[in-house]
Amino acid sequence: MIVCVKHFNALKPDNYDMFLQFGEDDKVDIILWDNGKIDKNLENKTVLDDYGLRLQSQKLDSILNLIHFKQEYLIRLKHDLAEINCKSIGYKHKIWHIHNSVGAIEIGYITHDFYGLDYIITDTIDQDFLNEAKEMCNYKIINNKVLVRFQGPSWGDDGGVNWCGE
After folding, report:
1. Can you tell me the distance from the alpha carbon of 126 to that of 20, in angstroms, rounded to the nearest whole number?
2. 69-124 pLDDT, tens digit each
3. If both were cysteines, with which of 29, 44, 59, 137 could 51 make a disulfide (CB 3.0 to 4.6 Å apart)?
4. Cα–Cα dist 17/15, whole Å
5. Residues 6+ apart with CB under 8 A from 118
6. Distance of alpha carbon 77 from alpha carbon 28, whole angstroms
7. Strands (E) located in 35-85
8. pTM for the full model?
């Protein structure tokens, strides 16, 4: 996982939050947000969202040119993620649900249902951030740089997972 995180961290755009999700075939979903317009209530400004784009397509090239990203980067990321059984990777300048957050890379693991399991890796997490994350029952703190987030099949639902009180 470390190789994938370091590789993505070196490539991610500076001015956007970004999410990439790879399908089993040669397709990718891409979402970009203007990181200056994101607030805790998820009232963000999506700059671009496109789903099911074929790798090596002209449309994907035009999108990637906006953020100075190359298709070769995507192909390498897809390979790196497959090596660790993951399907998605993204970067957010702030974790949207937590006030005292910092920038983080989120890696999504493959699940075979509607639930999601993401590892969130940051450079540093301060104590205020950790305290707020502890109160959110769908986050599990692994250490001072890594969290795991479980997401249920619908918005606002943690799917019955309750990590609070552990």
Report:
1. 27
2. 888 888 889 999 999 888 999 888 776 566 556 678 889 987 776 677 888 888 76
3. 29
4. 7
5. 88, 106, 107, 108, 109, 148, 149, 151
6. 11
7. 46-54
8. 0.77
